[in-house]
Amino acid sequence: MNDDVARVLGGDQRAISRMMTALERRDSAVAPVIKELDCKTGNAYTIGITGPPGVGKSTLVDRFTGHLRDLGLTVGIIAVDPDSPFSGGSILGDRIRMQRHYLDSGVFIRSVSTRGQGGGLPRIVKRYGVGQTELGIMTVADTVVVALMPESGDAIQTLKAGILEIADIYIVNKSDREGADRMAAAMRAMLQIASEPQEWEPPVLLTQADRGLGIEELWEKVKEHRSFASAPADDLGQPSLLEKRRSDRRRAEFLESIQEELNHRLKARIENDPTLRLMLEDIAIGKREPFSTAAELLEEKHIAGFTFLSGEGESLP
Amino acid sequence: MNDDVARVLGGDQRAISRMMTALERRDSAVAPVIKELDCKTGNAYTIGITGPPGVGKSTLVDRFTGHLRDLGLTVGIIAVDPDSPFSGGSILGDRIRMQRHYLDSGVFIRSVSTRGQGGGLPRIVKRYGVGQTELGIMTVADTVVVALMPESGDAIQTLKAGILEIADIYIVNKSDREGADRMAAAMRAMLQIASEPQEWEPPVLLTQADRGLGIEELWEKVKEHRSFASAPADDLGQPSLLEKRRSDRRRAEFLESIQEELNHRLKARIENDPTLRLMLEDIAIGKREPFSTAAELLEEKHIAGFTFLSGEGESLP
């Protein structure tokens, strides 16, 4: 196990891949390794890049990675695709477009859509994380970038998707298309209304990733946001925005780890308990109502050897 | 409580609104009412309509509702918007566009994005549910319709969004725009490859909802899919696809009700337990690692009066 820790710290790509696979499976055998590694982490700055399909995220990440490498920085890319039987092709597509960095030992690329996958990855030094991600995992980033394009629909419609509230930086990519300036102006106006004074007001950048335009500005804005978020909240030692975000993330990871394991145990318990299995079957065929059956079960707290968490703080019999 | 049941069955809009609000809050006080009502439900056919922002879902639902009303059917519409401080305007927009049906006693409209909201709804007879929904809740529909438009990006990019796998029927709306036929043809080709023989092969329809074009065909395809899904799986009394879908939905509702309550109790327990609260603080500031701490806690099963579900089937001390 200490061997695994040393291998991961030494940049052994197979050890890192094994560890990430175990983590994806929430295999508790990897817990001691993660525990050892924890104090070595936190030096990377994590940038999340998301946006609707077709907006040019892969090209953007490719060019952004090139820029960071030119500056002598190392990059880790976690590409998150929706778990889909269809999307094998798209992941491959992303990889091909990133091939420019495939043999670069300063770039680590990993897809996390399919489990157990991930052979043949290049040597890794995780430092600047640039991820292609969906909405749900934007919480893992220090700076969140949302990419849109003139054809994403008009700005009002974009608001409707709810993605205007998660970003620290907005990009209107493919800005040579008609309506780009108008869209950026409308977004800036809305963001100005929505932002409180003292708060970070997300900038809106125009980019043409395929021609490398606007990439430098993106990096400048990321650095600006990083400075803003890293600044102490006050003179009294209160945590900075960045520290707060990272603390929230660690708390969430702890709670989610417990919740996932409890849900797993709940399902295992129902499968192994004839009374509960029958109850579930009655629910499925309409002999019992789902919501009220759940409420009754939780009310009794202890049915057929099934111990529930109590919210009141006492230890259950 | 029996009064509430009678009122809901009698179509009392305030009683129904109150009940839906309580359900949204997962208030267990409503459980006995839901239990009584359960055997009266299941007669409505539920159609889920989703798609990217700007694709024209509201107009589509408005026209589709008009068509169903012309056929003498009653309609219930549950409009689900992402929970967002910005989207108040969009919900209002949807409502305005649906105003044509607002005073029609055969149409029930409710938004479920904001809690506690929902006054002034028209008289309700829930029969045909037509909902504007996000991906996550498509599981509640008997027939799932995904609306796209030529500008949603090309067909390959659409696959990437993962929404091509959830639909029973596809619509290319705004089909007067350039590229609609090409997009529909590409989607049909991919769906043919992806569908197994014997399985339902999702049709791809061209619509112009604002002009009412393609709405009749949509209803015909919904009926076709309903027939297909309702057909017995074999002569041996095996459940139909529709019965299977609905059973799965009931099972999921039961499990999710328990999980949400357990998660709620977990959080309450941590807040009330000084040892666990300290543990969470150590995690936040980096003194403890989240994943391994969760694993250790679950391993010990019982820390500081904190009883966990056991997966092995025995009753915990």
From TrEMBL, chains A, B:
Q: Does the keyword Chaperone apply?
A: yes
What GO annotations for molecular function exist for this entry? GTP binding; GTPase activity
Query: Which UniProt keywords are listed?
Result: Chaperone, GTP-binding, Hydrolase, Nucleotide-binding
What domain of life is recorded for the organism?
Answer: Eukaryota
Do you know which Gene3D superfamilies this protein is assigned to?
Answer: P-loop containing nucleotide triphosphate hydrolases
> What InterPro entries does UniProt report for this protein, alphabetically?
GTPase/Isobutyryl-CoA_mutase, GTPase_ArgK, P-loop_NTPase
Query: Could you list the residue ranges that cross the membrane?
Result: none
> Chaperone among the record's keywords?
yes
Q: Which family does it belong to?
A: Belongs to the SIMIBI class G3E GTPase family. ArgK/MeaB subfamily.
Q: Which PANTHER family match?
A: LAO_AO TRANSPORT SYSTEM ATPASE, LYSINE/ARGININE/ORNITHINE TRANSPORT SYSTEM KINASE
Name-wise, this protein is: GTPase PH0274
Tell me which species this is from.
Answer: Geodia barretti
